[in-house]
Amino acid sequence: MIKCSECGYENIDGLDYCDGCGAKLNAAAQAPAGESGGVAAPEAAAQPAPAEAAAEAPAEAPATPPPSETPTGEIKPPPEANAAAAAAAPAAEPPAAAGTTARAKLQVVRGGRKGQEFPLEDGNNLVGRWDPETGAFPEVDLDQDDPEAKISRKHALIRFESGKITVEDIGSLNGTYVNRQPRLMPGNPVELKTGDEIIIGKTFLKLIVEPVS
Questions:
Q1: How far is CA 156 from each of CA 12, 78, 141, 153, 188, rounded to the nearest angstrom?
Q2: Angle at Cα 170 formed by Cα 123 and Cα 153, nearest 5°?
Q3: Average pLDDT, whole number, for the chain?
Q4: Taking the chain, what is the end-to-end CA distance rounded to the nearest angstrom?
Q5: What is the largest CA-CA distance in the chain?
Q6: Where does the chain have alpha helices with state H?
Q7: HSE on the CB side for 76, CA within 13 Å?
Q8: I need a surface site. Which of 4, 92, 193, 196 has the fewest CB within 10 A?
Q9: Residue 206: in which H helix or E strand, if any?
């Protein structure tokens, strides 16, 4: 039964309006409190406070701008990508210092055309005189400095290699001397340094080495 809250008339179940006074029946009165067969709605889950929600929310990663395309069609990565790649790349090694080379020459100081110079080439430099039979000219041609023919046509060999200079007698008739020391044994090279004096026949030659950067 549904009791009307206006007039107190008891109406049968299922009516929307009171048969006694015509007032709209209160739906809550249809089922006494605590007797309803319905299931009570579960309480809403507690919502975290705004401050707590902000603390629990993961920080959003900064947006990375998309790659851009150049007028030629080349795809250029964003500046952040270039910076990251540069940071990850190993530091470039500093360039090596430029190697120092040398320039060498022989200068006549006595017994010929005084002051005449003969630049030395890299590798082998034959010291001697022009050979009319073969037409060969040595790198250091002392033909005009040896009127008495005391110098053999193939007298000595000076080797200039990797900054090192050596001289050796190659079977000359009158021998080869360095700094007025004993005669060199043929086939035994002797290392030279700038300022050394080489005597070939009656011609005195001075070695001059000049560094070139």
A1: 143, 69, 11, 9, 11
A2: 90
A3: 76
A4: 119
A5: 164
A6: 50-56, 79-88
A7: 10
A8: 92
A9: strand 203-212
Apex 16 CA angle, 11 and 18, nearest 5: 45
CA–CA dist 122, 139 (Å, integer): 11
Which candidate, 107, 128, 119, places its Cα nearest to that of 170? 128
Q: pTM for the whole thing?
A: 0.52
According to the per-residue pLDDT averaged within each range, which of 8-17, 54-63, 184-193 is highest?
184-193
Tokens, residue 9: 């008339």
The separation between CA 205 and the C-alpha centre of its own chain, rounded to angstroms, equals: 48
pLDDT at 83: 53
| Alpha helix stretches (DSSP H) within 95-182 | none
Q: Count of CB atoms within 10 A of residue 104's CB?
A: 20
Work out whether strand 140-141 and strand 123-128 pair parallel, antiparallel, or are unpaired.
parallel
Q: Which structure tokens are listed for 119?
A: 């630049």
Residue 86 CA: distances (Å) to CA of 68, 81, 89, 94, 119: 19, 9, 5, 17, 50
The per-residue pLDDT for 87 is: 54
What is the 3-state composition of the chain as percent helix, strand, coil, each rounded to the nearest 5?
A: 10, 30, 55
From the list 100, 113, 172, the residue with the least C-alpha distance to 147 is 113
Written as one letter, the residue type at 107 is Q
